Structure formats: structure tokens, C-alpha cells
Amino acid sequence: MKVYLDDERRTPDGWVRVYWPEEAIALLRTGDVTEISLDHDLGDDARGTGYDVVLWIEEQVMTAGFRAPAMRVHSANASAREKMEAGIRTIERYAGRAGNA
Fold it and tell me: Which of these, 28, 81, 88, 93, has the minimum number of CB atoms within 10 Å of its CB?
């Protein structure tokens, strides 16, 4: 399953649309997500951002052996995009080391 977290953009064909981090995380917990594309700004920061999903994946990879799906960021928020992409690189580096251990 491909998951698309966004509050405004059109969902690409073949992707499952979610609007909030908790929805994305619920799908990630199923283990069926092969790819996730994240927006940062979702219209209500009190309900979370795409970065919260990156943090959840990072914690699960490092503490619970979670296998992260392919991840990408499609946010127009440049500084948030950089922060999210840095988190993804950290996850990928850790997962690469853990897979080689």
C-alpha cells in the first residue's frame, strides 16, 4: 500500500489518502505500507505534522525493529522539508547498519 499524507493536494492514482499523522501511523502499524509520501503542514499543527510521522518511524525502527517503507517528502515548506529529509536519512542509515549487523 502507498500512503499519501496531505490536506490539500490531489491524491496520486494508486495511493491511499490520509489527512492526519495518526491515520498514517495506524496504516504503518499494519505492516502493509510499502511507500509513504509526506506533507508537513496539514492545516492544524495541534493535530500534528508530517514530521511527527517521520519521528514515529524513526523511533519504531530504532527500538522495535520496524521495517520502514520507502519514504519521500512532498512539502512546499522548505525548512520543514529539510528537517524531514534529514530524519529520513537518519532512518535509512540506521536501517542499513541494522540490516548489516
Answer: 93
